[in-house]
Specification:
Elements lengths: L2 H26 L7 H28 L6 H14 L3 H33 L6 E5 L2 E5 L9 E4 L9 E5 L2 E4 L1 H4 L5 E3 L4 E2 L4 E2 L4 E5 L7 H10 L7 H32 L3 H15 L2 H20 L2 E3 L2 H8 L1 E7 L10 E7 L4 H11 L6 H10 L8 E7 L3 E6 L2 E6 L1 H6 L12 E7 L2 E9 L6 H10 L4 E5 L4 H11 L3 E3 L4 H13 L6 E6 L5 H6 L2 E5 L5 H6 L2 E3 L6 H35 L5 H19 L12
Parallel strand pairs: 11-18, 11-20, 18-19, 20-21, 21-22
Antiparallel strand pairs: 1-2, 1-3, 3-9, 4-7, 4-9, 5-6, 5-8, 10-22, 12-17, 13-14, 14-15, 15-16, 16-17
């Protein structure tokens, strides 16, 4: 519990004790000799202890043009109750309203803690170098340019540059990479990672507020800025609802006494009940809290959702489209066969390694690993990478092609297509095909079961879009049980294929695209929900994707779908429950059949029940339940 929450709790306890004492004294008749103003003064003490901040915010909002909010309703209702002599009720309404606010604050805090605990990347302290030696300081208090010491096993508290020491850094919490990175003097470090084997002296380059770990947490905590449609509805509803019920309460208090000679006190009392029960707290608190709880539950499973609108969209998924390499397959390529058409296997491998010598593509790396030597890159000139096709270069004065069958056809090279399963890399030199390399990439562990669970969670269709050749893509699709497959696609072809799928989406349903967050950025952005696998350290992934599965585990996908559907179900429950109870009590209050305590239940009670229901989203959902 935070300091602010503790202060509120102390105020609640003090106010409740004073109010209870006054009510007991009144019941015993001890307060009967006191004049009306004396009683009012006594009851104002617990009222102001618990409600001074509500009164202040109501006045402050009025001066800023934000008149009709819950603070205004509570202030008007309780002051009117004092005006008609309902002293205990007036103080109790404010007291119970603050109890509801405390529940809300604790629930939001629990959601935030669940996010931080799941990610386990929030640093608790920094070893700050000072003239007196090392001091443990709050990372928020460490200025940019300070020197901190990170000991083995400690979490790096701030972004910075290593100035002394060597170590291995575990970046798994941010990037999903299982292999530690080496840190040397001059290496950049990002906060949230774990220092492994050696002590490091680091000069900080960013304040805590701008650090990587803070930015990632803010992606989740600030998800309220991207509201779901149902949240937008509640916001618009409250904007019109509150003025309407305020005017309704005024009319209820004024019209019957003016035109029907009714008692002013009775109808003002009814108007107070009307105001109290009409406060939209249950909706404006529980709906965002439900979404925030869903985001927190997803985070605890290693799934970052960038906004409640994406959580809502994910709950309506009917089609999931997958990239192949690095998403459904491991992205760990190896040369499984070397099939020369001319010359030897060694000569073919060398030509391929020379052509791919400058490329960072995983397939190029696998070819160089298979060659096992440093290629003589001085022999290669005019290297040109052609997206989706391969590499064109000049080797010893002759044109060297290393890439797909499409590349050879476009350059007019005659060759016999290979029939092997796997990614085929053809090699041609001087206009003649020298052979083909077969590159294989294993299917990810758990991919098949993840796709089964996605179907069980309510997704109707699964599709794979791949740049690989059709035979290889169809073999993967058959193994995993995908419904459709499109192969031999260039990056721009993937966008067109996705748009064709979007065009036939059922009304009210959404389409999600699952990719690596880097090469598939255009498609991720175009889908209703873009889901990136891993790559948490990449700005491209964070920007392009709406949802990021941090540890690259496909089995988290059905969990994300199930959590989103449970969240929407709970949010809708709260809306129906709150509106139904409030409507009934509003009618009863207008007819004089409800007292102030029932109105308090209609406001605070409903709010607390809705908040507790919303907190169920924090528990997440088992995959396949919907």
């Amino acid at each position: 519990m935070t300091k602010k929450q503790k202060r509120t709790l102390y105020r609640i306890l003090l106010s409740a004790a004073l109010l209870a004492a006054l009510m007991v004294l009144e019941h015993l008749g001890t307060l009967d000799p006191l004049p009306r103003l004396g009683k009012l003064g006594l009851y104002l003490i617990p009222y102001l202890i618990i409600g001074w901040d509500i009164l202040w915010e109501a006045v402050e909002h009025i001066f800023h043009g934000q008149v009709f909010d819950e603070n205004f309703l509570m202030t008007v209702a309780t002051l009117a109750a004092f005006g008609v002599g309902e002293y205990p009720e007036a103080a109790a309404v404010m007291l119970l309203y603050q109890v509801g606010e405390l529940f809300q604050s604790c629930a939001v805090g629990k959601s935030r803690r669940s996010i931080a605990d799941m990610m386990d990347i929030v640093p608790e302290y920094a070893n700050l170098e000072t003239p007196e030696g090392l001091e443990q300081a709050d990372p928020e208090d460490v200025p940019v340019g300070s020197v901190i010491v990170v000991k083995p096993g400690e979490r790096i508290p701030l972004d910075g540059i290593v100035i002394e020491g060597e170590s291995l850094i575990d970046t798994a919490a941010l990037t999903g990479e299982s292999v530690p990175r080496t840190a040397l003097p001059g290496s950049e470090l990002i906060s949230g990672c774990v220092n492994g084997s050696g002590t490091l002296r680091v000069r900080t380059t960013k304040a805590y507020a701008d650090a990587t770990v803070t930015r990632i947490l803010e992606l989740v905590e600030n998800a309220s800025s991207r509201k779901a449609r149902v949240e937008g509805f509640i916001t618009r509803f409250a904007r019109y609802y509150t003025p309407i019920v305020t005017v309704g309460a005024v009319l209820l208090a004024v019209l019957p006494p003016l035109f029907f000679h009714q008692s002013w006190g009775e109808w003002i009392h009814r108007a107070c009940i009307f105001l109290v029960v009409s406060c939209p707290c249950a909706l404006v608190i529980s709906v965002p809290l439900g979404f925030f709880g869903g985001i927190g539950a997803a985070s605890r499973h290693g799934i970052l959702v960038k906004g409640s609108n994406y959580l809502e969209s994910m709950s309506k998924l009917s089609t999931l489209v997958f990239d192949k390499t690095g998403t459904l397959t491991k992205g760990e390529f190896r040369v499984s066969a070397v099939l020369p058409a001319l010359g030897t296997q060694a000569e073919l491998l060398e030509l391929a390694a020379l052509g791919e010598g400058y490329s960072n593509h995983p397939i190029a790396q696998s070819i160089r690993e298979a060659w096992g030597k440093e290629p003589e890159l001085s022999r290669v000139q005019a290297v040109q990478e052609i997206a989706g096709r391969g590499v064109l270069a000049i080797l010893d004065g002759a044109e060297l092609l290393v890439g797909s069958a499409r590349l050879l056809r476009e350059r007019g090279v005659d060759f016999s297509p290979a029939r092997e399963d796997g990614t085929l890399v053809y090699v041609a030199l001087g206009g003649s095909c020298r052979g083909v390399l077969v590159i294989t990439d294993g299917i990810k562990e758990g991919a098949a079961s993840a796709l089964e669970q996605v179907k069980a969670a309510g997704v109707d269709k699964t599709v794979m879009l791949s740049g690989d050749r059709r035979q290889t893509a169809e073999a993967v699709a058959r193994t995993l049980g995908l419904d459709e497959v499109e192969a031999e696609l260039l990056p721009q072809d993937k966008v067109m294929a996705l748009e064709a799928l979007l065009a036939v989406q059922p009304r009210g349903k959404t389409l999600g695209y699952v990719g690596d967050g880097l090469n598939d950025a255009p498609v991720l952005s175009r889908a209703d929900v873009g889901i990136a696998m891993g790559s948490m350290g990449s700005d491209a992934a964070i920007e392009a994707a709406d949802v990021v599965i941090m540890d690259d585990d496909l089995r988290k996908l059905p969990t994300a779908v199930s959590i989103s559907r449970k969240t929407l179900r709970i949010v809708k429950q709260n809306i129906v429950f709150a509106l139904a109870v409030k409507f009934i009590i509003l009618i009863l209050g207008a007819l004089g059949l409800a007292n102030m305590w029932l109105a308090v239940f209609g406001d605070v009670g409903v709010s607390v029940i809705a908040i507790l229901n919303s907190m169920r989203t924090l528990r997440g959902e088992k995959p396949g339940t919907h």
